[in-house]
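Comment on the following before class.
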Amino acid sequence: MHFPDELLTDATITAARQSIVGAGAELEGLTTALLTAIATGDDTGTLTAGLALLTQCGRVTAAFPELVAALTTAGPTLPGITAAQITALVDDLPRKITDLLLADRLEASKPAAALLEAFGILERAFDPGDLADPTKPPH
């Protein structure tokens, strides 16, 4: 779904996004630790780093209710956006964003991504969008 630029400038939504960014700032270092442990064959380190990464993902996820509330309140007031589109967006939003963050961070390491997919933590899906609706591009 393509949202209007106002979505990124709304003060309530921006504050909620910043809460998640703050909690997510540690993910890169934790991901690096996991990738290093996997690359060196350190099973204990892989488990420890994996658990630390999952714990931090939980912290990121805990920041999502603020974003969901902001989107639910302000989203339908934006041009061209309906309440139904916002409902579809916020439905299971923490899982969607966590999956996206992990996928982006682990994209460089196929073994790490495969491990998380095997445990059911990471799921990749392609949405072909709706060619008749420019607010729903493929992603």
